[in-house]
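Hi there,

I know you've been waiting on this one. I reran it after we fixed the sequence typo, so this is the corrected version. Both the input and the resulting structure follow.
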Amino acid sequence: MPQSAPASPTVLRIILGKQLQTLREKAGLSYEDAAGTIYASAWTLRRMEKAEVGLKLNYVKSLLMAYGVTDAGEIDTFLELAREANKPGWWHSYTDVLPGWFRVFPGLEQAASLIRGYEPHCVPGLLQAQDYARALTTAGYPSAAPGETDRRVALRMTRQQILSRPDPPALWVVIDEAALRRPVGGLAVMRAQLDQLIDATGKPNITLQVLPLAAGAHPLMYGMFHLLRFPAAELPDIAYGENLTSAFYLDKPAEVASYTEALDRLCAQASPADKTSSILRRIRKDYQ
């Protein structure tokens, strides 16, 4: 049984869901059989185990007993963790501008100890300057009201606070040179954005690499993605990617390994991290 709560309710809900799945499988119960003990559908139980819904305490208690957990102390501990998992994260106050498929990601991002990724189209959200983020948001949501745009930008800026907290995650990102050459918001906006990236290269928890245009074809020409690793041993590495209207979250070891291996090869093709600052300064001159 889990003993303490991780920082993010999202991660805790995932861990508890996996724990419920393990207990169900050890008890030899199918989804249908287990769901019958709480008078719910198998689909509801699947969503609980996948952390797609909150954990109803009466459901959790009944399931634990059905799975053979009878110790009152263990049940109380699990229920207390379920209460913590049901608490909303800070990002829930932005649900009006947060796509449903993205709502899990801020919690994972907040709980990660290592975030790696590849960004072919734009500067990654955790490193975007405010005016750059506003220009991207305006282009991405051209019909949005000004207040909605402000909210989207504020959400992105708030996400960035994880990089300056006392225990920040390690961030290691490869940015395609094409993303840095694409003018977003005008010359002044791009100069400020490049200045922010240059500053980021001096931070001990941030590693930036630029994939030069001359690198040609590479193993990740499918789009952006992130790999997240967590301090909680119960939680596997997760690969995350997105497109215009949806996202994917992969945690099967073989799938995550494929992304990890491809990113390792990409890092070998990219310019060394100790050259990134000079590359960014050279690109910045083109925005004078």
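Quick highlight: DSSP finds twelve helices and six strands in the chain.

Best,
R. S.
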